[in-house]
Specification:
Elements lengths: L29 H13 L4 H10 L16 H9 L5 H8 L3 H21 L2 H5 L6 H14 L6 H10 L6 H24 L6 H8 L3 H7 L3 H18 L6 H5 L2
């Protein structure tokens, strides 16, 4: 759905507050309005925030994709592969390929049928049954990949009914990504003659110290992983200046 806010030549240079309305995003550049609204929504992707922004800006474009994050895609691919869904099938579905979406949907339906036949606590605990939350993530990811073809309100509504923007797998994927970043940054510090601590690393990646200590319960294991990472970084030469990061600590 392509919405564009029409510029009002009479109201040029005036905000909607000055005209008696509520929006603070009026602008003669629809793309600038869209970027501002999208940023405002993604900073708080709740349905309350979306409804408020949409009511105040009924004609503007607001991008609502928050679950489909290609930076975290490897996390999902690893779990999909365990259930016989290859990366090519997912990418065909997420791309502009109708046949790819059909193949993935049929595969998911088959997986659901299989799960009904063998769904027991034992099979579920052993990962033999594809989890509902993984199916939900695929549904939302496919919806978001079609955001230029279907109303964003429908995406927001279905996503909300399936668990909201913070679906279980998205939270897990983001946590795993931050955990990997913690090891990478600890290796960066060690390679540059610094001693990483839970406190410094937590500030670098924006989590609490207790979160880092939960990820790495054994300080000796954390130090071992950081040392391995440091050696790899020294060999590859892929070292980044830590000065800017350290200033924030």
């Amino acid at each position: 759905m392509n919405r564009r806010k029409r510029a009002n030549p009479v109201a040029k240079g005036r905000s909607r507050e000055e005209e008696g309305g509520q929006s603070k995003y009026d602008d003669d550049d629809p793309d600038a309005v869209s970027r501002a609204l999208t940023k405002a929504f993604k900073s708080d992707p709740s349905i309350e925030n979306y409804v408020r922004l949409r009511r105040e800006n009924p004609d503007a474009d607001i991008e609502v994709d928050v679950v489909l994050n290609y930076d975290l895609i490897d996390y999902y691919l690893e779990r999909l592969k365990k259930h016989g869904i290859e990366r090519e099938l997912l990418f065909e579905a997420l791309g502009d390929l109708r046949d790819g979406r059909a193949k993935l949907i049929l595969t998911l339906l088959e997986k659901i049928i299989e799960a009904r036949k063998m769904e027991t606590p034992h099979n579920a605990s052993r990962g033999r049954v594809i989890p509902n939350k993984l199916i939900d993530w695929i549904i939302v990811a496919c919806l978001e990949s079609l955001s230029d073809q279907i109303p964003p309100e429908l995406i927001v509504l279905i996503r909300e009914r399936l668990g909201g923007p913070n679906l279980g797998y998205r939270r897990s994927a983001e946590e795993q990504s931050k955990k990997s970043s913690a090891v990478f940054l600890a290796g960066q510090m060690k390679a540059q003659g610094l001693q990483p601590t839970y406190s410094t690393i937590s500030k670098m990646i924006g989590v609490s110290k207790s979160t880092v200590s939960r990820w790495f319960k054994d300080p000796a294991e954390f130090d071992r992983l950081a040392t391995i990472e440091a050696r790899l970084l020294e060999q590859s030469g892929f070292l980044e200046p830590l000065q800017k990061r350290r200033l924030r600590i």
